[in-house]
Design brief:
There is one protein chain. The termini are far apart. Strands 1, 2, 3, 4, 5, 6, 7, 8, 9 and 10 form a ten-stranded mixed β-sheet that branches. By secondary structure, this protein is of the alpha/beta class. Helix content is 43%, strand content 21%.
Length: 326
């Protein structure tokens, strides 16, 4: 017969084993147990910020923990990139990795991180670009803009900064048409558009969402969009493809990433939650009318896509000797 001391020791051992097993199971399945932060590299109100804040409530409901958006502005998204790259890989700190963020990894030589510092989770899609000119140019078509770019002075084009998508797209466009242009860099796209409206610059490639907002501004004229098909918010504006410039098929796209080393099961849960939010009809209703084009990519497909984009931008930067000192 077991003594009282032996019975107590056995009970304690059993309880300890039960706690250990339940703790193991808890550790494997409990994530998340606290709020999750999506880090944005641009100021509140930008497209990456707006998209993320719209998705946050859906992610909160799916994951069972609050998902909040934090803006870490600076360095053309590199402040946000560095914040997430150096964060603990536990799934609680995410990055809204956008086109400009990928460009910066190819443009800047002194970054403390690179694309391998992240594990891609999901790309959700993006906006094509709109070619916008200042009404003060007296130009009403892409052909007239091309003619102006081939004069002795060429044209001036604005962007939200050196190496941004607007900068690279304008550079690619001018090269394709054989025109000349002088780049005027601003702190962000809104500043560049404001300068365009004032006649201080002549041309800009902004997102088609911005183009839709600006289409009735008497100081501006939207000449074309870069998507293969016309956009819902600019149905009367032709595509560059229609006009014979199909090689300029550029967009600003948005994806989400976590620090490298984040557990696969956590990445999977995040991916499922993000895809669910984007596939909700409410998302299409909110952003489809503004020219957003859903393009969900995950896993190896997304890794390949980002690598391809990085290589493409690297070639444009090298071919045109684009440097931060420009």
């Amino acid at each position: 017969m077991l003594t009282r001391r032996e019975l107590l020791a056995g009970a304690a051992a059993l309880a300890g084993s039960t706690l250990l097993l339940s703790g193991m199971a808890f550790g494997q399945s409990a994530w998340p147990t606290r709020p999750i932060t999506i880090t944005i590299g641009n100021a509140p109100g930008g497209d990456d910020d707006t998209l993320s804040r719209f998705l946050a409530p859906s992610l909160t409901q799916t994951l069972g923990q609050s998902v909040v958006v934090e803006n870490r502005v600076g360095g053309s998204t590199t402040v946000a990139g560095n914040t997430v790259a150096s964060a603990k890989p536990d799934g609680y700190t995410l990055l809204c990795l956008i086109t400009a963020g990928v460009v910066q990894t190819q443009l800047r030589k002194n970054l403390t991180y690179n694309l391998d510092s992240f594990v891609p989770i999901a790309k959700i899609g993006g906006y094509p670009l709109a070619l916008i000119v200042s009404a003060k140019m007296g130009i009403d078509s892409v052909d007239e803009l091309i003619a102006a770019s081939k004069t002795a002075d060429g044209v001036t084009f604005a962007s939200g900064g050196v190496g941004t998508v607007g900068h690279l797209t304008s550079t690619m466009f001018l090269k394709e048409i054989g025109g000349k242009g002088v780049h005027v860099s601003y702190k962000n796209n809104p500043e560049g558009i404001q300068a365009l409206a004032g006649g201080f610059t002549q041309m800009i490639f902004a997102s088609a969402r911005e183009g839709g907002v600006l289409k009735d501004d008497p100081n501006l004229k939207v000449l074309a969009v870069t998507s293969p098909e016309r956009t819902a918010n600019l149905p009367d504006v032709p595509t560059l493809k229609e006009l014979g410039y199909g090689d300029i098929d550029q967009s600003v796209w948005y994806s989400y990433a976590a620090p490298a080393g984040t557990p696969n099961d956590v990445v999977q849960k995040l991916k499922d939650a993000i895809v669910k939010g984007v596939e909700d009809p409410a998302f299409e209703e909110r952003f489809g009318a503004m020219a957003f084009q859903t393009d969900i990519r995950t896993g190896e497909d997304l890794k390949t896509y980002i690598a391809s984009e990085a290589n493409r931008f690297k070639q444009v930067i090298a071919a045109n000797d684009i440097q931060l000192s420009n």
